[in-house]
Amino acid sequence: MKRRLFYSALVVVLGLNLVVGAQIFFSSSHGAEKDDIYPMLKLFSTVLERVRNDYVDGGKLSYQDLIYGALKGMLNTLDPHSEFMEPSKYEDLKKDTQGEFGGVGVVISVKDNFLTVVAPMEDTPGYKAGIMRDDRIIKIDGKSTEKFGLQDAVKKLRGEPGTDVSITILRPSTGAQKEYRLTRAQIKVDTIKDINGKREFPLSDNNVGYIRVGQFGEQTASDLEEALRKLENRGMESLVLDLRGNPGGLLDQEPVVRFNRRPRHQATLRIQGRWPR
User: What are 238's strand-pairing partners?
Assistant: First the structure.
């Protein structure tokens, strides 16, 4: 009797173990299937084809349009700093970080819904022509900029050095309009400047140096080192490193601030501004 009870209990325990083990196995295999790339790729291609064939305007959509849209959506789910860039936008980014591009040499933004000149850059076609801060660009090559976004305007103004572009300006201070025909030139963007917006790097009366880092491009580290060398040779004792408004840039441009140590002399560094997060 006791032996029969023992075997019955043993069978029950083994049965329970079998049931629990099967549940664990199927749940783990189901979880693995969820993270398997091939079924997901099959699902993606199925939806892609369904949209291409059955969407009311599917004939107007290319596979590139749909895949680019999917990639943008995928990257947008990660964080605000991750982005999928189409080739044209990536080329624009490279030009910005390289610090050189073909253009007219005016910094622009959208202000009060108008395409507005923030500042003309010295020794550029726009600066030499007399374009001024706060001028409104109302036409580019005869086309109204009323519906232009900032990127649209940048694409119109940039181009191969030696080519021409026509810009119509409205000057709010006088209400006058004027058309400029500018020849694009190779524009070099200095990411390192002194307090006067130049690259002379003078010292203040109490031997304080000032360097503004506008963004981090390909030449930022070497340009910063050159500026520090100039200031140190002039007897700099402290430094203001201005990062206000710096949008960031290339991650590999992390310049090391180095000073020669002299007896009874040690430069101090003050960071002005906040690093964008």
Answer: 208, 268
d(CA 27, CA 32): 9
CA distance 79 to 86: 18
* Predicted pLDDT at 260: 46
> How many CB atoms are closer than 10 A to CB 51?
14
The label of the residue with tokens 């622009």 reads: 108
What b/e readout covers 88-106, taking b as 16+ CB neighbours within 10 angstroms? eeeebeebbbebebbbbbb
Query: Taking the alpha carbons of 78, 80, 86, 87 in that order, is the dihedral positive or negative?
Result: negative
Tell me what pLDDT residue 218 has. 79
A 10 A CB-CB count for 117 gives 21
Residue 261 has pLDDT above 50, yes or no: no
Kindly list the strands in the beta sheet with 268-272, ordered across the sheet, starting from the edge strand earlier in the chain.
192-193, 208-213, 238-242, 268-272
List Cα–Cα distances, 158 to 92, 107, 165, 186, in angstroms: 10, 12, 9, 10
Nearest to 235, CA basis, from 277, 266, 196, 271 = 266
Q: Which residue has the tokens 């043993």?
A: 10
Identify the residue with better confidence: 45 or 82.
Answer: 45
Rounded to the nearest 10 degrees, the angle between the axes of helix 63-76 and helix 37-54 is: 130
